[in-house]
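Quick one: examine this chain and its backbone structure tokens and tell me how the chain folds. Here goes:
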Amino acid sequence: TDPAAYGYVYVHGLHFVAYVSARFGRTPRNAWLRAMMEGLTLEDATAEAFGVPFSELAADWRDSITQAR
């Protein structure tokens, strides 16, 4: 990532985690983060914590941004 875009990357991640928290709640969000910290892949942790593939979660998040306009 271009260093000039670092601020955008941070905001992007912050917004995604806020979306996950609002959609699933703190306990599943923390389980998701813990699962990745313990070595699960992003895909496996997402399926385990939220019951959906990461690709679906990411698409839902992008749709939520579009609807917020």
About this structure: The chain has a mean pLDDT of 94. The chain has four helices and no strands. The CA atoms of residues 2 and 9 lie 10 Å apart.
